[in-house]
């Protein structure tokens, strides 16, 4: 049941052994003429019977194996050619190298890279054993873009190398993850060359065995090699010419309307040479016809005409009809349909949201409506859609419709208040602008308000949703005060559990009609689970290919066939774009590269709108995005979605992302490419859960003293409160009013003076916004007429560790070198530079309990839970590591970055001293046990999205040397920066129940190392150390000890001897308490 340590993900060679049994539909791998990749490892046989032609290729393989083992050696084609020609006394042609690539397609890299990327290989490795204080980046600072420099030589260099990282073998101890790889000894180099030669022999023998009698194996190899001759992107020939001459099989990208079917694309995909049983599961949803119905009260002729002329709609789907009929009966409505249908609800229900507005305006020209969206982009999209609808509706074409958000100029706001019939806004503006100035809105707009539409209701949950729920209650109270109690509310949402109940909780209303039957048509949709293959099918010890490489390769394949793709990444959007840029350039597919862009939250508003427009108009073939595009911003028709890694938002985010493809009834594709981490691999083995497992209920905390008090202060500022307002704000109203507000002689409650003059500014619905650094491109400043431009803005907590002099900054997949950072002006100046490495600093977050405010006994236990002030410190990055094209660490430096510090509130529970000693005696790593127990506790907490723990980092816990700072043995949890919801207090008050629930979940699951079946017992999708430091047995011991349960020592498994580890966890010291603290009953 226990485990000592999860294996490092890079060596997951055996993970695929059980995949076939778990896949729902796993097509058999197609046979190929050249060779089979699915055979087991064979012993090398004699080469004396080979045709002489293969002896030549063998010599080439030997030279390449030697060259590529040298870290500082740039393995370019000219270097290899010189060595081979000296050895074999005859010229080496490109076609011969292409033959080696054809024999070992997944092992050998043969392609062009920018010449600038080779510069780093000219630096020799410092062997003194000490890190350099600061690297010399002057050589790169003036490089600029390769496209802007006149050179006497080609801008691209032909590289010939082995795929896997061979420049020294990293220790299997994760503690060496950021150390430079050691140089190979002569014996190790000899062994490496022999292994590669053996692999070559196996490949040739496979080819010879597969060759049919009468066929010439040399001719077969030469024919296959023609597809592997690389294209020089800096050549003078046009892209189309290069395609014709060098790669005759490459074709022009078809228009998306003329693309082949997804089924045909997948059938061809399984025939590709690089297909190696990556497809572990396939589920197909058949196309579905739309179902229409008639309204109980038909629309007027002019509204029907408007819908017909603007949208080409002649009938409404059943869910739209049900919603419009319910609104006509003066009921509030929520429409929630499945994203797996291939349609996002915002597009299915645009008529649901907008047709009723036309009806209200037709009946009453003074009627008003409010549309609330989670993002400005969504609001702008839908405003444009409504304006088009109104334009085609006779008599309503002059209706005033506006966006009213933070970008609305101050000088225009008064005019909007006085003239708008419909506004598109967000809850931030409702909270900070409309409600605090309700006296300016009530006379006309609020008094005549007929409809309030809230889209993407599933977006509002946890602390953010809890704040929004209180804003809606304040809003209903203000409207009621002006005599408007007949507002109808309508919401749209992706599929969630209990949508009707969620809407009732959000709005504080009871009369809600829930509509979940989807009548929209849907095209056929295929869902694939695509696990990266082994780097070398004959040598599992090399591990699997990277999930990013697999994702970008699949994306390139789809785009060449006219399939419009979006690739969702978690935090590596720019790195994926950089990879795509390099790969498409090496292939000479600049025509496709021009139609691929990255999209994420840090971009400027202008850049995001430009990308959205490019996508919507169909100019883009590919988008690489973070979850910023999970919500329904209209970016046109997408044919395929690739999800790189399981989303941190869980199954709800997974289904939301998958629903981005096939929005207009065409066939579509969704592909999940798992990372090698435990949660991802769980879904590889259990793919049905991706579709069938219920999503978690959306959580709102309507009884948080912190949240309710904050909004009562705001409500009292808008209009004085009475105890009758309990009908809006709940049972806490009386206590909070009497203790926290100011009561006048007439019994009215007013805002406390400390919140004046503007109470709303004390509440950030989404959490306090951080200061930001501007990243400014100064590449063109030294050129005539050149100007600097802001690339994007980066939050302070990121900037302190990711932006430093010498760091590589990536924007749209293009690399920039940070030249200068000014912390006073919060600005980083960067230069466009072609480099083949990235910088990846390591930071450690330490949470220390500083002062105890409350102590609570744990039920039936001698131990206690504590709540109080905590100090959060993100320490200076101890090193930056640079990765070359093979992901090898080529340098590491110390950084002199000031720590990021702040205070927070949180809770903690100390691990008993005896338990700590027991684990050490039993060979159980205390860090693994505590980390797993923290996850188990959080996974039972409904508001876990708004509370974090101190995740244990593998390279620190498994370090092969003493740790500078020992961590106290305690479970510790804290509220993230800027959150004001009292989540830690809530967890503290329910500590006994949460601990018991965690123990039950972990104890009753039959898994050995933790899984999602035990409600993600010891694994968490948000763990920043990828759940590598965890022990299920350790978690059980810790949880039982804290709860005062007996521990059967005989059941503790005996662990095999392990490498020496140093102590990182010590007994937790007592934390100073404020005066007068008493122990509260459990």
Summed up, what is this model?
The protein is α/β, with parallel strands linked by helices. It contains 36 helices and 36 strands. The protein is globular.
Based on Cα principal axes, name the global outline.
globular
Poorly predicted runs of 5 or more residues: 1-45, 119-153, 165-181, 236-248, 340-350
Rg on CA atoms, Å: 31 Å
Reported for the largest beta sheet, the result is: 7 strands, mixed
Strand order of the main beta sheet, please?
Answer: 3-13-18-17-14-16-15
- Overall strand count: 36
Average pLDDT reading = 79
Instruction: Give the strand content.
Output: 15-25%
Number of helical stretches of at least 4 residues: 36
Helix content: 25-40%
Helix-strand makeup class: alpha/beta
| Cα distance spanning the termini | 31 Å
Description:
By secondary structure, the protein is α/β, with parallel strands linked by helices. It is 34% helix and 17% strand. It has 36 helices and 36 strands. The strands form nine sheets. It has a seven-stranded mixed sheet, sandwiched between helices. A seven-stranded parallel sheet has the order 8-9-7-10-11-6-12, with helices on both faces. Helix 20 packs across helix 21. The N terminus is likely disordered. Keywords: ATP-binding, Hydrolase, Nucleotide-binding. It holds the Pfam family MZB. It comes from Obba rivulosa. GO terms for molecular function: 3'-5' DNA helicase activity; ATP binding; hydrolase activity; nucleic acid binding. This is P-loop containing nucleoside triphosphate hydrolase protein.
């Amino acid at each position: 049941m226990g485990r000592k340590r999860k294996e490092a993900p890079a060596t997951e060679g055996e993970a695929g052994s059980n995949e076939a049994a778990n896949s729902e539909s796993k097509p058999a791998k197609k046979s190929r003429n050249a060779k089979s990749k699915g055979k087991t490892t064979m012993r090398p046989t004699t080469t004396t019977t080979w045709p002489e032609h293969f002896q030549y290729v063998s010599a080439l393989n030997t030279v390449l194996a030697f060259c590529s083992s040298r870290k500082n050696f740039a393995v370019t084609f000219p270097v290899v050619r010189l060595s081979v020609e000296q050895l074999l006394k005859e010229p080496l042609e490109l076609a011969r190298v292409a033959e080696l690539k054809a024999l070992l397609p997944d092992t050998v890299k043969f392609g062009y890279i920018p010449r600038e990327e080779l510069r780093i290989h000219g630096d020799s490795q410092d062997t003194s054993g000490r890190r350099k204080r600061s690297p010399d980046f002057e050589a790169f600072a003036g490089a600029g873009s390769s496209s802007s420099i006149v050179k006497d030589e080609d801008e691209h260099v032909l590289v010939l190398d082995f795929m896997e990282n061979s420049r020294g073998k990293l220790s299997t101890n994760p503690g060496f993850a950021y150390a430079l790889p050691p140089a190979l000894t002569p014996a190790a180099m000899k062994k490496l060359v022999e292994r590669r030669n053996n692999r070559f022999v196996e490949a040739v023998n496979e080819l010879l065995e597969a060759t049919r009698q009468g066929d010439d194996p040399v001719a077969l190899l030469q024919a296959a090699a023609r597809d592997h001759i690389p294209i020089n992107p800096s050549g003078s020939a046009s892209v189309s010419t290069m395609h014709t001459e060098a790669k005759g099989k490459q074709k022009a990208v078809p228009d998306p309307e003329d693309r082949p079917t997804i089924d045909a694309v997948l059938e061809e995909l399984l025939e590709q040479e690089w297909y190696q049983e990556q497809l572990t599961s396939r589920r197909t949803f058949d196309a579905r016809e739309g179902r229409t119905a008639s309204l109980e009260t038909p629309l007027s002729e002019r509204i029907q005409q408007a819908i017909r002329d603007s949208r080409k709609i002649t009938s409404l789907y059943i869910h739209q009809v049900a919603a419009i009929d319910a609104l006509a009966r003066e009921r509030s409505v929520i429409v929630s349909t499945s994203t797996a249908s291939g349609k996002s609800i915002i597009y299915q229900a645009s008529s649901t949201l907008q047709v009723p507005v036309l009806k209200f305006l037709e009946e009453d020209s003074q009627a008003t409506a409010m549309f609330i969206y989670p993002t400005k982009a969504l609001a702008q999209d839908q405003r444009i859609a409504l304006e088009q609808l109104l334009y085609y509706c006779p008599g309503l074409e002059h209706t005033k419709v506006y966006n009213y958000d933070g970008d609305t100029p101050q000088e225009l706001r008064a005019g909007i208040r006085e003239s708008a019939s419909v506004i598109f806004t967000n809850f931030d503006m409702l909270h900070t602008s409309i409600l605090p100035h309700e006296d300016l809105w009530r006379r006309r707009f609020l008094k005549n308000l007929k409809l309030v539409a809230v889209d993407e209701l599933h977006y509002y949950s946890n602390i953010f949703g809890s704040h929004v729920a209180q804003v809606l209650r304040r809003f209903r109270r203000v409207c009621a005060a002006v005599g408007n109690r007949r507002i109808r509310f309508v919401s749209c949402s992706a599929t969630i559990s209990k949508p009707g109940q969620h809407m009732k909780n959000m709005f504080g209303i009871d009369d809600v009609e829930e509509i979940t039957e989807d009548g929209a048509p849907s095209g056929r949709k295929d869902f694939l689970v695509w696990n990266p293959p082994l780097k070398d099918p004959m040598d599992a010890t090399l591990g699997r290919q990277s999930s990013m490489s697999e994702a970008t390769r699949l994306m390139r394949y789809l785009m060449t066939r006219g399939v419009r793709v979006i690739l969702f990444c978690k935090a590596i959007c720019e790195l994926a774009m950089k990879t795509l840029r390099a790969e498409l350039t090496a292939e000479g597919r600049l025509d496709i590269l021009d139609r691929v862009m990255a999209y994420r939250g840090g971009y400027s508003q202008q850049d995001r709108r430009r990308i959205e427009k490019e996508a919507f108009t169909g100019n883009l073939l590919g988008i690489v995005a973070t979850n910023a595009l999970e919500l329904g911003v209209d970016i046109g028709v997408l044919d395929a979605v690739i999800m790189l890694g399981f989303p941190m938002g869980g199954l709800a985010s997974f289904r939301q992302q998958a629903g981005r493809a096939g929005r207009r009834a065409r066939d579509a594709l969704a592909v999940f490419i798992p990372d090698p981490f435990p949660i991802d691999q769980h879904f590889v083995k259990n793919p049905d859960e991706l579709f069938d497992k219920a999503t978690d209920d959306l959580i709102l905390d309507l009884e948080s003293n912190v949240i309710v008090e904050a909004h009562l202060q705001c409500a009292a500022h808008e209009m004085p409160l009475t105890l009758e307002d309990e009908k809006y704000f709940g049972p806490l109203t009386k206590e909070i009013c009497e203790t926290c507000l100011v009561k006048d002689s007439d019994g009215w409650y007013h805002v406390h003076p400390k919140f004046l003059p503007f109470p709303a500014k004390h509440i950030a619905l989404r959490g306090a916004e951080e200061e930001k650094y501007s990243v400014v491109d100064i590449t063109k400043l030294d050129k005539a007429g050149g100007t600097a431009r802001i690339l994007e803005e980066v939050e302070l907590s990121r900037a302190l560790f990711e932006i430093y002099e010498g760091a590589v900054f990536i924007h749209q997949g293009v690399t920039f070198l940070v030249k200068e950072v000014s912390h006073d002006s919060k600005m980083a100046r960067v230069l466009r530079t072609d480099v083949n490495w990235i910088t990846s600093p390591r930071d450690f977050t330490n949470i220390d309990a500083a002062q105890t405010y409350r102590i609570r006994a744990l039920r039936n236990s001698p131990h206690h839970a504590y709540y109080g002030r905590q100090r959060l410190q993100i320490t200076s990055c101890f090193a930056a590591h640079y990765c070359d094209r093979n992901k090898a660490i080529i340098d590491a430096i110390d950084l002199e970055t000031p720590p990021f510090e702040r205070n927070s509130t949180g809770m903690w529970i100390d691990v008993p001293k005896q338990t700590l000693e027991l684990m050490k005696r039993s060979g159980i790593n205390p860090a693994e046990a505590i980390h797993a127990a923290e996850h188990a506790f959080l996974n039972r907490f409904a508001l876990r999205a708004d509370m974090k723990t101190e995740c244990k980092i593998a390279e620190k816990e498994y370090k092969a040397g003493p740790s500078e700072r020992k961590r106290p043995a305690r479970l510790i949890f804290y509220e993230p920066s800027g959150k004001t919801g009292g989540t830690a207090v809530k967890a503290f008050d329910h500590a006994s129940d949460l601990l018991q629930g965690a123990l039950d979940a972990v104890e009753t699951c039959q898994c050995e190392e933790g899984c999602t079946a035990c409600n993600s017992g010891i694994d968490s999708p948000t763990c920043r150390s990828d759940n590598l430091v965890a022990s299920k047995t350790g978690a059980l011991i810790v949880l039982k000890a804290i709860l005062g349960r007996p521990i059967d020592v005989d059941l503790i498994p005996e662990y095999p001897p392990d490498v020496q580890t140093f102590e990182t966890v010590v007994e937790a010291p007592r934390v100073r308490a404020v005066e007068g603290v008493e122990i509260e009953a459990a």
